[in-house]
Every structure is written in C-alpha cells, then in structure tokens.
Specification:
The protein is mostly helical. It has one domain. Helices cover 67% and strands 0% of the residues. It has ten helices and no strands. Helix 5 runs antiparallel to helix 8 and helix 7 packs antiparallel against helix 8. The radius of gyration is 19 Å and the shape is globular.
Length: 229
Amino acid sequence: MTFEADRYVTLMASLPHIGLLSSREPPITRTRLVARLKALAPEDAAEIETVRALLDWEALGAGGDDAAYLDRAEGLIDALRSPILREAACDRLEIRTVVAALRRRRAGEDAPPAGARWGYGRHAAKIRANWSRPDFGLGRTYPWLAQAQAMIEAGETAALERLLLDAAWAAIDRRAAGHHFDLPAVAFYLMRWSLADRWSRYDADAAAARFAALLDAALAEGAARGEAA
C-alpha cells in the first residue's frame, strides 16, 4: 500500500458513519471534521476546499445575479482536478436549477428568455423550452419532480426540504459507488455531512417565511412590469 493510499485509509477509518438523514446532529462536529481533514496533502486539501466552497455557494438563496452565480459556480467546478467530483458538483447544481425553475414558475414568472444565463447544466435549455409542462419534460430524470411541485403548491416547506435533501443524497450515493479510501471518498463524506448538518439545523417556520417572501417579491416584480407595460 502506498503512503497516499494509507493516508486515505487512516482518514476514512477515523470518520464515523453517516447514515440516512435524521433530526439528530451529524455524528462528528464541524470542528472535529476540519481537524481530521488536516491529514490531507496540500493539493488534496485544496480540492476539498473547492468542494466545500461549492457546497456553501449552492446553499445560497435563488435571488441575486444569476450570471454572477453561474460564473462563480463554473469557475469552482473547472478548478476541480477530479472528473468524478466535477460530475457530483454538477449533479447538485442541476438539482438546484430545476428547483429554482419550479419556484419561479410558482411565482408566476414566464420562461427565461432565449439566451439568458439563468440556470446551470444540461437541463436549463430543456426546462425553458418545456416551461408549461409540470415536470419540464424531466420526469424520467428526476422522478421526484411531481412530488416537489405538489409540495411547493401546498407550501409544505419542511417536506420539500427533506425531499430535496434525499434527492441530493441519492445522487451522491450513485457517484460514490466504488470510492472507499481515496480523495473522492473524502469529498463524498463531506457532501453527506453538509446535508446532514443542513437538515439538523432546519427551521421549518423560518423556511416558510423565506419562501413566502420570495413569492411576494416575485409577484410584486411581475405586477410592476405589468404596470410599466
């Protein structure tokens, strides 16, 4: 066994198992996780830091400058050396794009104009072209879309949050297959930890208030555009 392989075996063996999401806190604190990651070589630590930055950025709200968001996300993904980690990061951002589209449509927005930089990944053009279809034509790719749509319509923010976290978790599991004691295994652990941490700190009342505020802002903006016309 090489020194690098031994380093990963030791690191992964030191990290407690993270199972499916629950209301409990992750089995290792952020402080201890960061301390364990210091065992990585500098170049690998830089890769993990890029993954961490993507996770933090993805967690931001849907508002703001779409083009600036996409520029930053694309720059971070391009900086990843590992093809499998690039694919996993794309999975997360594509899920975020389709959920952002559901929320925009729920707020009464029209499809983004042709050529607009509004969403990340393979499905942005298809979503725009199929704006009026309940699943944007992506029901086979994302079987949970119909359920997410119903939850958004009903304002079931906690159930929606759990559904999306489960979808992200499943996407990680697909990419993580076969990676146990290597750099991607460490990154996938961090991804799972971030989901578990997010769910443990979830505040349903605050989320409902944020969702209502987003809808109110979008509706007000649409009304203003109508008056201007």
